[in-house]
Amino acid sequence: MKNNSTAHSVHGGKMIVLALLGVSLLAILVTSFVYRTMHPHITEVVREQPPAQMPQNGAQQGASTEELAHLMALMQEDPNNPDVLKQISDLFIRTKDWERALFFLQKAMVATPSDPQILYMHGIVLFNQDKPEEAAAAFESLLAIEDDASARYNLGIIYKHFLKQPEKAQEHFSALLANDNAEPELKQRAQQELETEHK
């Protein structure tokens, strides 16, 4: 009788723990959704690019003085190499040094003005410099070359929350949802933006 009562008590305890976990998970999801709604931000999808050939003993990821020195040496050998300029820009973007990133992006744009990756990075930098109109122009230029889901999402955010043009935002979010190549998470975020009111 006592054993039966103990087992019943343990089972009840497990149910309470599971219920608490469920409530906690729900609270996290709701908090995340509310935060994202209250703090809209563009997405900074990292596009793959061919890495510069690093010395074997210095190979490493992330922004570093050694990486920058290596890229600068490559640029001295070939000042207009767009791949090297993109990698230098990417390094400064990762360290949020927007001024320097913009400087090298502009050099890269002279070399290859229609490079989608450079246009995307240009939009990211301009947005982070509090220049939403110029950032939108950069992303629009990219869309004129290819239908990029991340650029569409960023345009939707910029038009909805920063330029106060909800019709244009809706146009880009809807186009993103119709893009078969768009990531499911990006589609979900676009759908949430369509379902929430303009702030």
Automatic annotation (TrEMBL):
UniProt entry tagged with the keyword Membrane? yes
- Tell me what this protein is called: Tetratricopeptide repeat protein
Oxidoreductase: present as a keyword of the record? no
Source organism (scientific name) = Desulfovibrio psychrotolerans
InterPro entries assigned? TPR-like_helical_dom_sf, TPR_rpt
UniProt region (Disordered), positions on chain: 180-199
Instruction: Describe where the TPR repeats fall, as residue ranges on this chain.
Output: 82-115
Q: Which Gene3D superfamilies match?
A: Tetratricopeptide repeat domain
Which Pfam family, an example, fits this chain? Answer: TPR_6
UniProt-listed PROSITE patterns: TPR
